[in-house]
Design a protein that fits this description.
This protein is of the alpha+beta class and 533 residues long. 30% of the residues lie in helices and 20% in strands.
């Protein structure tokens, strides 16, 4: 309760010399102005202010608001202060009135519902005015938001809360150093997403403050800082050397995306897009992968005994299936060649010719069960995880060469190369699963040893003296590659694709509407592979 013993200093005159009245006006029935109400007396000032202070101190917002000349507006502000400001130990100490004005001091403790933020004292001074309400003649407190706090205005309230919705987050590379959007512009949307996803789990704190907010909830003024935000940390598998190379490579082409994956672990070591402020095509794109998808188809044909690297295999100029006539680039053919010849030259008809031997769902099953495509991946940020729908007739045949309804992105195709290199699908991840104990996708079965060996030989030949050789020239070690050029209706040039591995690094790139995969996407992949040394 508020003490008012000091009010005896006022002298106690009944007329008090004050002349304050509420600003509302009444008229008599005849339309002539009503008589001015009597000024409030010193005793009324004491009584009205004391009642208001008592109700406010006790948290009786309804009573306190009812003691003003605008109960509705007062109730909104007082309720918010009681419910949202986190005040404890509220004390109001009035000073001697100056006429109808009563100065007072406020002291309280502000506490958030957060064990990481220590309570803090809050003190300030304000004043209220007592007026006589026209019509009723009652002595009431003149409502003004500024009496609650001098900085408070109409349509504003006081609340306590975190400085931001989420704590700041430092996203770390594989070496434990901080990744920034300034150094790696392509990572900007990913860094923002990681903050939203892992802000609460990062170990950081959002800080705390007491503030004035407007009707839209926007901060107008900070009244008290309780604690500064402290950043948490989220680890990633990004290799800064590879990331820098990836960023530089796609930026030089203006419109391109690339992803690098470590086959032995599934760790994503680089991801870059150009333009940097566009869509995260590298992870979320949905494009026909063209001939790069022949890696998956080749695994199916080898498993079914329909192809073998060194066995004779047809590569005619044309092949009809489902009412469509398919052909090779520039209508080439290979007479008396092997499957390895067809793979290295990216012969479409060599794959289409096997369509009559396959069921409609064979390719989708192989993609999912061996390469993990179409499973639900959990990489630590948003991703599109590959789509191989069941189709029939001509569309099924088109799917065998990465057209039809097949949709992939560089992340998916880097994973395909990684699966060939290691012999088993390891779901790619950007945030180590140990950080949040999430489960990674598991493919039902791996490549058989013989199929994996044949695929590696096919990709190695393509990298050494096939369609990928020019881009990968000069790169040694355990190497394999595959080109792709995906035709798209309405485009003058196809989308260029390239995927390759070198030792324990698999990379895939997409350069939309640019032409041949080896010429346009191949150099992007090669530059990232070279950065590993």
């Amino acid at each position: 309760m508020v003490g008012f013993g000091a009010y005896s200093l006022l002298g106690g005159d009944d007329d008090g010399g004050t002349a304050n009245v509420a600003s509302t006006s009444d008229s008599t029935p005849s339309g002539t102005p009503s008589e001015e109400p009597e000024p409030v007396t010193d005793e009324e000032v004491l009584a009205a202010s004391a009642a208001f202070f008592d109700a406010w101190t006790l948290g009786d917002t309804a009573t306190a608001a009812g003691l003003t000349d605008d109960p509705q507006s007062a109730r909104v502000v007082l309720d918010a202060l009681a419910e949202r400001a986190g005040l404890a130990d509220l004390a109001l100490e009035p000073s001697a009135p100056d006429g109808a004005t009563v100065p007072f001091a406020v002291s309280a403790t502000v506490a958030l519902d957060d064990d990481e933020v220590e309570p803090a004292p809050w003190e300030y001074t304000s004043a209220l005015e007592v007026v006589r309400e026209r019509g009723t003649g009652e002595a009431v407190v003149a409502w003004d938001p500024a009496l609650i706090h001098p900085a408070l205005e109409d349509d504003q309230i006081i609340e306590a809360g975190p400085v931001d919705e989420l704590p700041p987050v430092e996203v770390l590379d594989v070496n434990g150093d901080v990744l920034t959007a300034e150094d790696h512009p392509s990572l900007t949307p990913i860094l923002e997403d990681l903050r939203e996803r892992y802000g609460d789990a990062s170990g950081g704190t959002a800080g705390g403050e007491l503030r004035i907010v407007d009707a839209e909830g926007e901060t107008v003024e900070r009244l008290l800082e309780l604690a500064e935000p402290a950043p948490g940390q989220v680890p990633t598998t990004i290799d800064p050397v590879l990331q820098a190379a990836a960023e530089e490579s796609v930026a030089a082409r203006g419109n391109a995306s690339v992803v690098a994956v470590q086959p032995s672990t599934g760790a994503i070591q680089a991801v870059a897009n150009a333009p940097a402020d566009g869509m995260n095509t590298a992870f979320e794109g949905s494009y026909a992968p063209g001939s790069t998808f022949k890696i998956v188809t080749a695994s199916l044909l080898i498993d079914r005994g329909l192809a073998s690297a060194n066995a004779a295999h047809p590569c005619p100029k044309y092949f009809e299936h489902g009412g469509w006539r398919f052909q090779n680039l520039d209508e080439f053919e290979i007479e008396g060649g092997t499957f390895a010849d067809s793979f290295a030259a990216s012969c479409n008809t060599a794959f289409i010719s096997q369509a009559p031997e396959l069921a409609d769902d064979d390719l989708g099953n192989q993609a999912r069960d061996v390469f993990g495509l179409g499973l639900t991946w959990s990489i630590g940020t948003t991703s599109m995880d590959g789509t191989v729908p069941t189709q029939s007739d001509a569309q099924m045949a088109a799917s065998l060469i990465g057209q039809g309804g097949v949709r992939m992105n560089p992340l998916n195709m880097a994973s395909v190369s990684a699966t060939v290199q290691s012999g088993v699908f390891r779901q790619p991840y950007l945030v180590p699963p140990s950080f949040d104990n999430r489960e990674l996708a598991q493919a039902p079965r791996g490549l058989s040893g013989s199929t994996a060996q044949e695929l590696r030989s096919l990709m190695n030949r393509t990298a050494v003296n096939g369609s990928a050789a020019e881009a990968l020239a000069g790169l040694g070690g355990d190497i394999g590659g595959k080109t792709g050029s995906a035709e798209v209706d309405g485009q003058d040039l196809p989308n260029a694709w390239f995927t390759a591995y070198r030792n324990d690094l698999a990379v895939a790139a997409l350069v939309p509407e640019s032409g041949h995969g080896g010429t346009n996407a191949g150099p992007v992949v090669a530059e990232v592979l070279r950065a590993r040394g």
